[in-house]
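Researcher: Sequence of Protein-L-isoaspartate O-methyltransferase follows. Predict its structure.
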Amino acid sequence: MTVHDGMAAGPERLAAVLMEKGTLTSDWLPAYEAVPRHLFVPELIWPGHGGMNRQDDRVVRDDDPDTWWAAVHRDAPITTQWDDGAYTGAGKGKVPSSSSSMPTMVFSMLDALSVEKGHRVLEIGTGTGWNAALLSHRAGAENVVTVEVDEGSARDARRRLKAAGFEPVTVVGDGAEGCVGSGPYDRVIATCSVGSVPRPWVAQTRSGGVIVAPWGPVYGGEAVVRLTVFGDGTAAGRFVGSSAFMRLRAQRVGRQHVREYLGGRAWPADGVRSTTSLSPEEVGDWHVMFAIGVQVPDALPWTEPYADGSCTLWLRDTAVTSWATVDHVPGRREFEVYQYGPRKLWDEVVVAYRWWERQGRPGFERFGLTVGGAGDGEGERVWLDSPERPVPG
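Model: Prediction complete. Tokens:
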């Protein structure tokens, strides 16, 4: 029997869950108790589920206060906005665009940040304001700068922060640019994911400072990276755990419908048929997608399931020049492939997967990231075990 069994939903029960998991540590407990999550969750929410990108239908606090309260005090993410605020009706929108992050993720990232009293902190993505409040309690509100691209979200977060007794610097703007006027910073933390660490974040961080951010390739797979910034304008560090955040708006990638790739013709159009012994199911785990995505740039997967348990894995490049499909049928050892365009996308995935196998099927903890200086071109390299072992591609 766990310590929280039988406890009613509320801050104390959530604290017990998080402490049992080891994500809420004793040094962050005072901030948690001073800044309860429910003060920073809006009335209209779409409760999520830990470890899954899936939301329940909307819950309105005034209509169903018990369900709202229980959702707020689960260790799960809560979607608070769809389609950049364009969708406000019943049900769900197309793409979630803001949330209250899963508490386990919040405190895991704060732990990785190693923030102390008096540290100057830049937060990218104010969201509901809860993370900014926790940082303000820890470092002092006068030392916290938080940037939010959405004016409505920023306004609401500012109101909640003030009601809770905190007034950090709140800025409406593009988080990719950081906030140069208030730096340099000892710590930078992003509550949105990136596929390339914005150079202003590095430039605005003191030598020896730390950047904590969710990072992932276009293909999929994502983890939190902890970077240390060096005096020469570079930064490097390891990935510390799996994550799944909404993308920084400045780095979103548009996704074209498959019909755009087929040129209006029926599948398989001019696709070239072949077979493969690698099942599409083998390449779908989050850490595997990460290893593949680093090696297969600017490509997007999409799985189309069928009622009989079979499915089709679609691969598309962002340039809309190449596509591939792989059909998975349960029980088979050979799978039908069609590929079209200058890139043989499935072949690229197979090469990347076989590399991952040869390295001992590594998880996120064996990967790291180096971000180069301003004169180093793109200068961003993912490596395995050490910076001297860059991942191919």
